[in-house]
Write a structure and sequence with these properties.
By secondary structure, the chain is of the alpha/beta class. It is built from six helices and 16 strands. Helices cover 26% and strands 29% of the residues. The protein is globular and about 50 Å long.
Length: 284
């Protein structure tokens, strides 16, 4: 069996990176103790801060970032692949990058990914978000390949709002991804409506595992996130979930041969066909 033992870490990040690093160390340690060899943390692991000026003033380049350094050391200490769902990193022009990092068991950086789609929305409950004011959007998809425990893992990256753009996940699946990811800080309102259905859909339509660690609860800066960190199989079944919005972990054993089995039963990736997009403007 080509098995990957994976864990999601659910956090309630504060505005203080040092507090979040302490939480990260404890929760990743719990996951490693339970046998996880791939551990994923949520979007904005390092800090959640709605004060744009305060956030930007606190940022450092990746080479000097304390969360990046702590993650590298944690991966090495536990001998695991540690996927920091994202943390804010200083970018040119006084902006930030919402960047994911994957570290290997030797502590070396395997891959990075910058969130492509910016959450610029106005919600019914009065919440308004303009990520493009603070973050530079990423411009490339990312895929990491590694072998662990007999499993050939091909990991596709995304962050939070990216999950509403199925073309990103389809491109990763066509490039060979058998595990898709969507670490997030989903708002409570949108999470209650769409979290489970969107993640299950991305898994089903690409016949791939989906792993999505989340932020949960009321944060120091006043925002509320949905939680429910989750691991889903290629058939859309929930394998493990953190029930509710409290910090914690969930662990599942992923039989990666299930991806080939699902793609054999429903060969939609193979059955794709090109089609014209010249739509008629005539009314019927």
């Amino acid at each position: 069996m080509a098995e990957l033992v994976a864990a999601v870490v659910q956090m309630r990040s504060t505005t203080k990176p040092e507090d979040n690093i302490a939480s990260l160390e404890a929760l990743v340690g719990q996951a490693a103790t339970q046998g996880a060899v791939y551990v994923q943390t949520p979007e904005m692991t390092g800090a959640i801060c709605r004060d744009r000026e305060a956030l930007l003033a606190s940022l450092r380049p990746a080479a000097d970032d304390p969360v990046v350094a702590a993650a590298s050391e944690l991966a090495r200490r536990h001998g695991i692949y540690l996927h920091i769902g994202s943390t804010a990193i200083a970018a040119p022009g006084g902006m930030a990058a919402n960047r994911a990092f994957l570290f290997g068991p030797d502590g070396n950086q395997v891959e990075t990914y910058d969130k492509i789609h910016m959450f610029d929305v106005d919600l019914d409950n009065g919440e308004s978000w303009r990520e493009s004011r603070t973050y530079v959007p990423g411009e490339r998809a990312a895929l990491a390949r590694f072998s662990v425990g007999g499993a050939d893992v091909r990991l596709g990256f995304a962050v939070c709002y990216d999950m509403r753009f199925p073309e990103l996940f389809r491109a990763e699946a066509l490039a060979g991804a058998n595990v898709l990811t969507a670490p997030a800080a989903f708002t409570r309102q949108t999470g209650e409506a769409h979290w489970h259905v969107l993640l299950r859909a991305r898994a089903i339509e690409n016949n791939a595992f989906m792993i999505a660690a989340a932020q949960g609860g009321r944060h120091e800066d006043g925002r509320e996130t949905y939680g429910h960190s989750i691991i889903i199989d290629p058939w859309g079944r929930v394998l493990a979930e953190v029930d509710g919005d409290e910090p914690g972990i969930a662990v599942a054993r992923l039989d990666l041969t299930a991806v080939d089995t699902a793609r054999g039963k429903i060969p939609n990736l193979r059955n794709r066909r090109p089609f014209a997009t010249e739509f008629s403007a005539k009314a019927s």
